[in-house]
């Protein structure tokens, strides 16, 4: 794999460094597939300052309640675009009694009232339904799940926080500067046993840490694309999220056309390809024939190794990985990977799972069935489960015998569910090692609770190698060791009747008098204050990890059942990373409540006295008090807005960071009224510091490049420094000034 250190011109399908005579870089930029799609959806008339409207949207049952509640509070009367609500995340969680199904009934009633599309529990995982029924060449889809990626079907899809979907529901636009475009130039053909997850993990490993495609569009082109089936392309594409790119798009061809024809939507196809001359901001050259069977070790998809290399250096690599994992776990519990190496040098794992939008596709499961046919998973500690991505897929696998092959070999065949990807379902025993064809292996994504002394480890692998491992009784095995060809999948026949009989499609037919059905756990968002002239915040958590994931900010898994109750969910904020955060944030919230009641708590009075010695005359009535956290690089991972909203409902007013891991997390902070400060000198802050920001509202609205800040230490010491907010649109600045997106819509 080669990453170009500079831009690339594609000239008649061939990469080259220089532009052809008479062609400018600005002109060539218009030649990418991405440019054409962005231009078609941009309403501003300025391609450097995008204001986009999407063709459709999608959410699952962790996010849609909050989005609809936000849009209702902002004046929405009907869904102005097709909005698909799937139920694939909370369909098996038992926590909280009836509240999961209460959310599902709320979504069904919202589909009636506002004219939406409701996909019942276990019918399909979110991205599979949208591939099958909503994607189309040249379209754009916005989803409230970070893995909203349909680029392999010619659809530019974006995963964002709920606030951005609420904007679309009230007729506003998705605003951003035009992103860069990086070509992924594919040649060659994958070898026997090498699946889409192997290619994806190789790409993630080569691009995540160096930020090569961060917040950019990955455009897949080149002769190698034709050597990949539609399922294979989808499997690579959905994992582009883990590179931290903004979106993805692929050139289309007869294979794409066939996909839409099989799914009964031939009109959704049109050819997409770069122009004769196109300019890209970077280029990744990948010869698919060089990709090996891969494994991404705990606790990130970018910790990718060829399985061959791991097997040859098992002790050294696993020791390095477990040491890094234990540093990240902060001593609460210890991960043990080295013990998985057996006396004969083989690596033993206790669980294999193939599931979700990346693993549960038709061709992946057919490959699993072929590799396992006539074999046995054994009756030892190892266990194996398969989750299909949709009921039409499930039906075809029943018809062609794949389900029988897997079950006969000792595997468990389950329903359409995303749970194994975020820690709900198939949680291993303490200390076990699980290999999964899912999208993430972050801490706790397998469902353990380090704060309660539990830990298990997850590695990502392709379904083919997981099946080879299952056939070998749990001893880690690359599919290339057992496959002399790619397992062949029988022709796929899509039965749309499965959906027609169960999915409620009310698009274009809203019923305004239909009553929303609220369960007792579904609560409105608490009111949030506007930004005051000055601001005082207290640092209540100081996180020094290189990256902080959204799962660490608000854990996934069983807590997802409380997503519809903002205050109840907020009790879990940072619970697995910093259990002291919630009580500390509540204590600061109480200080502001006292201020609003006309009292000046002694702790705050002491801070103001220290500031007074420097000449700051603080007006308590014009100075909100809020909590804040510092983290080096927060926000890697999920698009769930709750990573920000939970801080906000506990009185969070700001974050301080060296950088933000993803655009979507920073957007969530903005939409929930939390100032996303950047600073170059993190050593000026520590846990327990108060930070005073004089004139912050005026600085925000006037787009000041630097904002004055003063840290007051617990011992009374003072440190002056500056912070930045980075590039923002005028609307984003006003949202922060108003206190949150809901307030912004009420005021404007």
TrEMBL record:
GO MF term list: 4 iron, 4 sulfur cluster binding; aconitate hydratase activity; metal ion binding
Gene Ontology cellular-component annotations: cytosol
GO biological process: tricarboxylic acid cycle
Domain of life: Bacteria
Domain Aconitase/3-isopropylmalate dehydratase large subunit alpha/beta/alpha: start-end pairs: 37-467
Keywords: Iron, Iron-sulfur, Metal-binding
Pfam families: Aconitase (PF00330)
Cofactors required: [4Fe-4S] cluster
Family annotation (InterPro entries): Acnase/IPM_dHydase_lsu_aba_1/3, Acoase/IPM_deHydtase_lsu_aba, Aconitase/3IPM_dehydase_swvl, Aconitase/IPM_isomerase, Aconitase_4Fe-4S_dom, Aconitase_dom2
Family from the record: Belongs to the aconitase/IPM isomerase family.
Protein name, as recorded: Hydratase
């Amino acid at each position: 794999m080669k990453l170009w250190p500079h831009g690339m011109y594609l000239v008649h399908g061939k990469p080259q460094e220089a532009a052809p005579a008479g062609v400018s870089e600005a002109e060539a930029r218009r030649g990418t597939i991405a440019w054409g799609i962005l231009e078609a959806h941009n309403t501003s008339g300025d391609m450097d300052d995008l204001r986009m409207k999407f063709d459709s949207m999608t959410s699952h049952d962790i996010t849609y309640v909050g989005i609809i509640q936000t849009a209702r509070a902002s004046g929405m009367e009907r869904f102005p675009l097709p909005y698909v609500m799937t139920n694939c995340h909370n369909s098996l969680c038992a926590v909280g009694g009836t509240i999961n199904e209460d959310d599902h009934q709320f979504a069904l009633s919202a589909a009636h009232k506002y004219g939406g599309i409701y996909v019942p529990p276990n019918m399909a995982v979110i991205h599979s339904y949208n591939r099958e029924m909503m994607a189309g060449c040249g379209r754009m889809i916005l989803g409230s799940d970070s893995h909203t990626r349909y680029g392999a079907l010619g659809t530019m899809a974006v995963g964002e926080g709920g606030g951005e979907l609420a904007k679309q529901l009230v007729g506003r636009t998705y605003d951003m500067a035009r992103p860069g475009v990086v070509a992924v130039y594919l040649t060659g053909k994958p070898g026997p046993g090498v699946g889409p997850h192997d290619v994806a993990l190789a790409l993630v490993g080569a691009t995540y840490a160096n930020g090569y495609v961060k917040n950019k569009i990955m455009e897949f082109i080149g002769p190698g694309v034709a050597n990949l089936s539609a399922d294979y392309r989808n499997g690579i594409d959905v994992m582009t999220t883990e590179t931290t790119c903004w979106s993805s798009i692929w050139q289309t061809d007869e294979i794409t056309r066939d996909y839409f024809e099989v799914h009964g939507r031939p009109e959704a196809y049109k050819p997409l390809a770069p122009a004769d001359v196109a300019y890209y901001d970077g280029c990744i050259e990948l010869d698919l024939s060089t990709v090996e069977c891969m494994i991404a070790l705990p606790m990130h998809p970018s910790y990718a190794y060829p399985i061959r290399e791991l097997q040859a250096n098992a002790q050294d690599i696993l020791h390095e990985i477990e040491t890094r994992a234990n540093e990240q776990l902060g001593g609460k519990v210890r991960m043990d990977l080295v013990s998985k190496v057996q006396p004969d040098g083989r690596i033993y794992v206790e669980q294999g799972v193939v599931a979700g939008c990346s693993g549960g596709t038709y061709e992946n499961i057919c490959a699993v069935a072929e590799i396992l046919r006539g074999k046995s998973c054994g009756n030892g500690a190892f266990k194996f489960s398969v989750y299909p991505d949709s009921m039409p897929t499930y039906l075809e696998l029943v018809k062609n015998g794949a389900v029988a092959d897997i079950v006969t070999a000792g595997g468990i065949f389950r329903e359409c569910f995303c749970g194994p990807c975020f820690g709900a379902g198939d949680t291993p025993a303490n200390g076990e090692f699980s290999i999964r064809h899912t999208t993430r292996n972050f801490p706790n994504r397998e469902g353990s609770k380090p704060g309660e002394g539990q830990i298990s480890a997850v590695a990502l692998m392709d379904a083919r190698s997981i099946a080879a491992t299952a056939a070998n009784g749990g001893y880690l095995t690359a599919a290339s060791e057992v496959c002399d060809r790619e397992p062949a999948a029988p022709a796929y026949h899509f039965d749309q009747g499965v959906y027609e009989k169960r999915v409620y499609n009310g698009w274009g037919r809203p019923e305004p008098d239909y009553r929303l059905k609220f369960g007792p756990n579904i609560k409105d968002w608490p009111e949030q204050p506007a930004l005051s002239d000055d601001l005082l915040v207290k640092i209540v958590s100081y996180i020094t990890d290189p990256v902080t994931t959204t799962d660490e900010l608000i854990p996934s898994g069983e807590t997802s059942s409380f997503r519809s109750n903002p205050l109840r969910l907020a009790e879990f904020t940072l619970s697995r990373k910093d259990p002291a955060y919630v009580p500390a944030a509540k204590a600061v919230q109480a200080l502001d409540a006292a201020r609003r009641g006309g009292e000046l708590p002694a702790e705050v009075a002491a801070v103001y006295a220290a500031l007074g010695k420097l000449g700051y005359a603080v007006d308590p009535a014009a100075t909100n008090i809020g909590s804040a956290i510092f983290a080096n690089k927060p926000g890697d991972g999920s698009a769930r807005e709750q990573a920000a909203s939970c801080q906000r409902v506990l009185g969070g007013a700001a974050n301080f960071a060296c950088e933000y891991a993803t655009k979507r997390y920073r957007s969530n902070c903005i939409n929930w009224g939390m100032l996303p400060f950047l600073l170059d000198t993190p050593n000026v802050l520590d846990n327990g510091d108060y930070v005073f920001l004089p004139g912050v509202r005026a600085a925000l609205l006037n787009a000041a490049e630097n904002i004055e800040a003063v840290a007051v230490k617990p011992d009374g010491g003072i440190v002056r420094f500056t912070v930045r907010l980075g590039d923002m649109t005028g609307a984003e600045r006003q949202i922060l000034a108003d206190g949150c997106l809901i307030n912004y819509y009420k005021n404007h």
